[in-house]
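User: Sequence recovery, please. Input:
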């Protein structure tokens, strides 16, 4: 099976969608990845957990889009 540009774009879109639908209160807090978890102090290097949470929040913000009134 050859990888085409379409299949790579489709896989990327599905991964972004999977990240965007993660809900902090219902899913992420149950596994210890809530909004109040993993926040470091000033001047400390952020750990992998806090970097992944920032990535998830960023993807959710971008994918939210404009709501209709």
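Assistant: Recovered sequence (69 residues):
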């Amino acid at each position: 099976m050859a990888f085409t540009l379409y299949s790579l774009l489709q896989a990327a879109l599905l991964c972004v969608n999977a990240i965007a639908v993660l809900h902090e209160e219902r899913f992420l807090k149950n596994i210890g990845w809530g909004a109040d978890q993993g926040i470091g102090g000033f001047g400390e290097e952020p750990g992998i957990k806090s970097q992944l949470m920032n990535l998830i929040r960023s993807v959710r913000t971008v994918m939210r889009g404009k709501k209709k009134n």
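The CA atoms of residues 11 and 56 lie 17 Å apart.
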